[in-house]
TrEMBL record:
Stated family: Belongs to the ZFTRAF1 family.
PANTHER family per the UniProt record, alphabetical: CYSTEINE AND HISTIDINE-RICH PROTEIN 1, ZINC FINGER TRAF-TYPE-CONTAINING PROTEIN 1
UniProt xrefs under Gene3D superfamilies: Zinc/RING finger domain, C3HC4 (zinc finger)
InterPro entries, sorted: ZFTRAF1 (IPR039338), Znf_RING (IPR001841), Znf_RING/FYVE/PHD (IPR013083)
MF annotations from Gene Ontology: zinc ion binding
Region spans: Disordered: 1-28
Biased composition (Polar residues): 1-10
Organism, scientific name: Lymnaea stagnalis
UniProt name for this protein: RING-type domain-containing protein
One Gene Ontology term, aspect cellular component: nucleus
PROSITE patterns the record matches: ZF_RING_2
Occurrences of domain RING-type (ranges): 55-99
Amino acid sequence: MEEGSDSSIQVLRESSADKENVSSYEPPNKKIKVSDVHADGKHKLEDRLSDILCCAVCLDLPKTCYQCSNGHLMCAGCFNHLLADARIKDETATCPNCRCEINRNVCIRNLAVEKAVSELPSDCAFCNQKLPRYQLDYHQRELCQERPCSCRYSRIGCHWEGPFHEIADHESNCAHPMKTGEEVMGALELIDTQQQEEQKLYNDIFSLLSFEKITFNDLQLKPFRTDDFITRLYYETTRFTAFNQQWVIRAKINSDHKNPTHTVNRSLSYQLVVKSKLTAPMMMHFLALSGPFGGIKMKSKIYNFEFTGELAETEYLDLPIDSAECNKLLASKTINFRLVMFLVTK
């Protein structure tokens, strides 16, 4: 009996020893599960927060954040785009998540989300260093050793571009400082040609300011709909007085593009219309500016037109704004701007 029991104990020990030596004894799915928990980046706090705090439209983290009445988040660009689309379609703008109504009065800024997003880490676009988002712009502009730079002699024709840590070596060996005066003058003439248009604009504005008859009006473009079978959005001001005549401004989107909602690049164009009956021609210079209540990021562009009894309105002229600014204006109930007019006296 003792021999039998000893042999059975020996068999059990050998079998247990064999199980310890067999690598497949531990269930493989358990090993994979444990290793995945530590390897999966989604279990990091910042990644989980990024999924929660992202914009409901573009899925990117918002710098400026709006929320609907149910708390769904949208970045400022997507929020303006949704409102602009609704304005063009003559529909009510809705949240892409819960379909509740969104507008300037209902949606509010979420400052807590904006501050939380600014603290989340993000990779530098040049050196891949992880930094809090509020430090990222300054790092990429001033501190990053991999940020792209141009040679200090670019004004005289050097086209070298490279990382910041290589610029000292390049400039010490750059051949452009040793060029002849004729070669340097050729490069400077090219730069001067590119700046002539901007300089001409400033000179023209200063010249117009010396005119005898100048007036300006702070105007408000309001949205309307055409009476066509397919209605189109357009804008118009109320009548205003300038140089003893009655005028209006009309504006339209993308030069009557068939469906402006199908394009990302949007623009506004406007025309100046005289409503009074003219007895003599009027040569007019005019330009649109951002008024005291408009806040439009607009470049200056001067137009001129001679109004007569037969020619009472100009062509539609480009309002010098970019697409993002156009969406911002379309998202507003009205568009506020200043029109400056100069009458040429003969």
